[in-house]
Design brief:
Elements: E1 2-8, E2 11-17, H1 23-30, E3 49-52, E4 55-58, E5 71-73, H2 75-78, H3 86-93, H4 103-116, H5 122-128, H6 139-149
Parallel strand pairs: 1-5
Antiparallel strand pairs: 1-2, 3-4, 3-5
Helix pairs in contact: 3-6
Length: about 160
């Protein structure tokens, strides 16, 4: 095990982990964060999405050694239940979560999309979130939440 420091949600956090241990396991098991979820373990579903230096990445396939000295932001770093971000509040307002398992990935991917394109079209939202899986079928509500967060009229 190696002692590692990472810049997590705006502050330095230290922990011990094997260099090849997935970032997701460190976030959940050692740092006790609950936003990122274990879904597929293959980087295909998006439930584990976090931001690494401002870009959405899948934490289940990213070795913790790859994040040393870099900035990691999780769902908890976007806002809190007491003070949600604009995007998180839009997801709440649109009741976009059913089981809630995919929502971490949807919010984190949507935040990345909105940073790159503050006013995406409905099609751009759908394309931007296409690699995030939702089994409950709340896709329409998720699209509306992203539209709402971007300040656009809700069309979906």
């Amino acid at each position: 095990m190696a002692r590692t420091t990472l810049h997590l949600n705006g502050r330095a956090r230290q922990f011990e982990a094997e260099p090849d241990e997935p970032l997701l396991y460190v976030l959940r098991d050692r740092l006790e964060l609950h936003g990122p979820k274990f879904g597929c373990g293959l980087g295909q579903c998006g439930a584990c999405t976090v931001h690494l230096d401002g870009q959405a990445v899948r934490s289940c396939t990213l070795p913790v050694s790859a994040v040393k000295g870099r900035k990691v932001t999780t769902l908890e770093g976007l806002g809190s239940s007491a003070k949600p971000s604009t995007l998180q509040q839009a997801f709440i307002d649109e009741q976009a979560a059913q089981c809630g398992y995919c929502i971490n990935g949807m919010v984190m991917q949507a935040a990345d999309l909105l940073k790159r394109n503050p006013r995406p079209s409905e099609q751009q939202i759908r394309e931007g979130l296409a690699m995030n899986l939702c089994r409950c079928g709340t896709h329409q509500r998720i699209v509306r939440a992203v539209q709402r967060a971007s300040g656009q009229p809700v069309t979906a």
